[in-house]
Amino acid sequence: MIQENCSLTEAQIQHFETFGFLVRRQVFEQMEIDQINKEFDNYLASIKEGFEKKNDSSIRCWPNWSNLNPDTPHMASLLEDPRIYVPSEQLLGDDTFPVYSNANSFRYNSGWHPDSVRRYLPCLKSLLYLHPTTGDNGALRVITGSHKSPLFDDLNHLKFIRPDDKKSKSLGESSIDSEDVPAYIFCSQPGDVITFNQRLWHAAFNGYEDRRNCSFAFYSKPKTIDQKVDLQFLLKQSETTASGLKMELKDSRYYHPWWLDNSEGSSKRASWIKSLDEWGFIDAVG
User: Fold this and answer.
1) pLDDT exceeds cutoff 80 at 54
2) In this structure, is residue 59 part of a structural domain?
């Protein structure tokens, strides 16, 4: 694949900066999606088998796990696919590095939230969808422009109530249902990719069992004191998430030794591993 063919246009970059997200349709072909789903099926089955052996009905299938492991080699390769990393570097800068590459099997709704509340460190996430979604069937929703203040702060002050809260489905103290909040609804087909600023408020409603996507998170290398503080906060957040995964998954490591070994000698991966090591991610969540 020619790297230049994966580059974003100036109009796409401006759209991302203005609205906080960017949609790219049919980035991956159905043949590729079928291969990803095959690996997904096998790994998800092994997780469920592990739960059954524990004979603990209280354990639910955790919705995400790192795909940077030898059991999912094709999914592991996606991080180094120019369709994923080239747009990320255009939006964040050449000194960008990935923090995780996950497979996600969702079962429940997700209330309105941002992935990051930090103000200074630029970071984004791309989602590759493996199943169709619609507004009535688990589609991601984003509040356009909510990655910027004052809208970001105004939404934070409203204190959204999650849709699985039995007391209410409302927004703050108002009578507005969370599903009625004005938003862009990302109705997707397998192979579609949406990329969004991690400060962008987003949600998903009317979910269904095993709603699948792959997620790729990229951070900018911090250049200022404020950005370094933000990165340390996000590092702690990742460490907490990894600790929770140890409760349920057979292997909770973000970075499997197989991936870190980089036996193929990828210069791109080598530079990423160096950054992850330098900023403490490998020690904290590896």
Assistant:
1) no
2) yes
